Model the fold of this input.
Amino acid sequence: MSWKLAVVPERCSGCKICELVCSIQRFGVNNPKKSAIRVMVVYPHPIIRMPIVCRQCKVAKCMENCPTGAIIQKDGIYDIDAEKCISCQQCVISCPFGAIFLHDEMETPFKCNLCNGTPHCVDACPKNALLFLPEHVLGQAQRMASVLKYGHMKEVEYVEKGERKVRRYADIEKGNAED
Amino acid sequence: MPTSKRETRKIKGGYFWKILWVDLDQGEAKTLEFDDAFALKYIGGRGFGAKLVWDQLQKGAIDPLGPENILVISPGPLGGLYLPASGKTSFISISPETGIYGDSNMGGSFGAELRQAGLDAVAITGKARTLSYLWIDNGNVKIIPSERLKGKGSLETEGMIKEDLKDEHIKVATIGVAGENQVRFACVTSDWGRNSGRTGIGAVMGSKNLKAVALRGSKDLPVFDLPRLRRASEAAFQTLRASKNFPFWQEQGLMSVIDYVNEAGVMPTFNFKEGVFEHAKKVNGYEMLSKYKIGDTSCFACPMACGNVCLVKEGRYRGTVVEGPEYETACMLGSNVGVQNFAAILKGNQLCDELGIDTITAGNLIGVLMEAQETGLLSEKDLDGLSYKWGSEEVILETIQRIAHRKGIGNVLAEGSLGVIKQWPQLRPIISQVKGLEQSAYDARIAISMALGYATSDIGAHHARAWTIAKELEMGMDWSLEKKANLVIYHQTLRPLFDMLGVCRLPWIELGFDENQYAEFYSAVTGVETTLTELLERSMLLYDLTRAISIKMGVARKDDYPPDRVFNLPMTEGPHAGKVLKREEYEEILDIYYAKRGWTKEGLVDEKKLTAFNDPLMGT
Done:
């Protein structure tokens, strides 16, 4: 089963803790400019903060465009083989998300390899804007949001062990095509 | 640590050993080096800044708006590192607002980027021939003339420079129109709304024809023991995230303080006349959450995300967007001027950010005008024919514009409270200021330690040096004066230490994060084993230095008194109705304070102590 690193931009506050952890974990240096995840802060048109990180695409444009076969894939995780890479930067410009990065002290481009299975940025994110999920779970947040938003929620208050609680449910009577 | 002898321990990380010195007169830049002893003693941040200002003063008198004034931008050895809230950077200079030592600091990522550019600090003197900005690309410097930035807003300028240099990732600190016009409380803005707000640093930049400083940095930061730092930091991040108030803090940030101060009866209301605002609920954090907030923002490496991004979605201010408000702004452009419309506060905040004005001073001085109209201290003619009624949104917004453009009454206000008092001496008793810096948004009438904190803060009446009001209210009024003086000094030592290290004080003051951990961070980063006590000694010493700078400008005991209101104007409502501070008691606590600092009864620092500050950057 393959796992995905998912981003929830609405939660991101732009603190760059993910970048710091990544550079330390990956290259052993405190340098956000050497991280394989990058927080973009756009303001005011539109107002958004969003971490950019490799999505481990199944049809990988970086791999397709690499002239030397330096993009390697193992268990659904893509990485760059520094031995084969000629640093032509074709992968950097062919990635639709801009999730492959360069640094002038680095011989080759670099990208997220999910820390070989346990991405450290996920736990470090104080806003839970990064999620590491089994593939089939992706989209769950949107699915749940749709369900919760769905029609005319009603609620009933009740008491359990002295604590006041609320039970919510969909109101069948109002569930018609009025709106 | 002995302060007279030069320190011999070796530092193994934390510094690039480079201060960039830019002379705008000559259009040149050079690099100053410094050694271990210098770094151990002054640490960084405002420490480096105060020392460089002191050295500049030895060359001759400084007019704050003259080319001889020096502006130091300095984060600190912990700036930009993987530890909580390491994004603070200080701006240090002789303040055009007060004429004495001045500094303020901003969050965001500007400081982290400066460090990654391979620098420990930047010092700027002189004046560029035409409006220019400084472009520091990994330590390489260019002074770029740019007349097209003239008259542009702070945020607009940030966008234009990013476009000019074709890099969205660079960091830019800018001034707005107010800075260009040398409004004495102009601020410096970065990261779309993080401000170095106080003491008029923006005016210093304006006087130097310096519209902005742009940075690109991509270097590894020097850390002696990265695994040790990581262990300490990860534990720190976990502690903060486990804190009970953490989720609440992310949600509201400093806006959560409004309900607290209003209930405590210390919310500045109607030009600090009252401490309870009838409409506090209309300008509090819940009002913000329910109608305006669209996102969280964090400074560099901070999990607390106290920044709020707000958008007005309907009504006359529809479309207004701003990073803010923060507590101070919400009070000073809200309760202090009688505004109960949250959207109007947002509009005022946005205007101040774009024009580059300190919201605290703006709200303070506008409140003064409102009271002056109410009591007849100023005539209609004095007031440009504007009607300064409490809560008049149009007049407030118009005044902010006039200040920035120095039009009519705005030109008087632009001179700050000292200028206003010169023009209209009758206003002196109703202006809440110390040393020319207007009081920030905590009342001091009922807490003598807070009054002492404002009065002895080295930059003027600002809460950043000592914020003791909560502790004093919690401890009750019967606490001895000595204990209160001790508390003020502890705050004035610890809080500036954060500004020397390049980190934010909020994890400590708001979430109770253990301050001893900063000694562990410092040790891991520099390879010099230290304790909090030792770091505090250096911060304590620095308070003597900033005091010494101001003494050269004539500061003495006479300047160490809280605003008059504190003694002679009781509040009429709330839990503290009828209370004022007693002058005799204040004299007594001031004596105790001086004695504890080792200053004379006149508030002067021993000349012999001062020679210790004449040490060179590099030992021989």
Notes: The radius of gyration of chain B is 23 Å. Chain B has three domains: 19-216, 246-431, 448-614.
